[in-house]
Design a protein that fits this description.
Elements (H helix, E strand, L loop, with lengths): L4 H14 L4 E9 L2 E8 L6 H6 L19 H11 L4 E6 L3 E9 L11 H9 L6 E8 L2 E6 H8 L5 H18 L2
Parallel strand pairs: 1-5
Antiparallel strand pairs: 1-2, 2-4, 3-4, 5-6
């Protein structure tokens, strides 16, 4: 079970990386008492049969996981959304990509805490593979956006402790500025 929304966001965005997407956008918008998350990719996508089963906890896409036959990420997401007056929408086309939109009521008593969003995003940026990830976070009128390549260039790469530390400091400063 995911302890925080940051865990849920990272888990759902990681699906795009695993789908061999070259371009991924992840946006979080907090406004009007809601939290909206949108993940869009140009990965392998899903055909209608797989898409119809995506929220079934006793199903996972064949070949996705070597050691297990179930996939709980999307079913857990759906449960959290529905139990917090939110919604979830999944659109996909094989060979085109996938778009996942979900929301939560920000003040709902059952909403998990946000958790460490900076760590979650940094983990996604550091995930191995050849992909571009653009992360945007907006709270009210304030927002920032950064791509994986921009961040790596700015900090001298994400392969060293120094680069990762600088990236974490940058993301933390952006998150703090949003909340001022």
């Amino acid at each position: 079970m995911h302890a925080t929304l940051a865990d849920v966001i990272a888990d759902t965005a990681q699906n795009s990386i695993e789908a061999k997407a070259k371009n991924i956008s992840l946006s979080i918008i907090e406004e009007g008492g809601k939290i909206f998350v949108k993940i869009k990719d140009d990965g392998k996508g899903m055909d209608e049969t797989i898409l119809a089963r995506a929220f079934n906890p006793f199903y996972t896409e064949p070949g996705k996981h070597d050691k297990r036959k179930v996939g709980l990420g999307l079913p857990i997401l759906k449960q959290i959304c529905e139990s917090t007056d939110g919604e979830v929408s999944l659109k996909s086309a094989k060979g085109v990509g996938t778009e996942l939109d979900y929301s939560f009521s920000a003040k709902h008593i059952d909403l998990p805490p946000m958790g460490d969003l900076v760590e979650a995003v940094l983990m996604l940026f550091n995930y191995p593979g050849d992909f571009e990830l653009v992360f945007t976070h907006k709270i009210g009128e304030e927002e920032y956006s950064i791509s994986r390549s921009e961040l790596a260039d700015a900090v001298g790469g994400l392969e060293t402790i120094d680069g990762i530390t600088l990236a974490k400091e940058f993301l933390s400063s952006q998150e703090e500025a949003l909340k001022e």
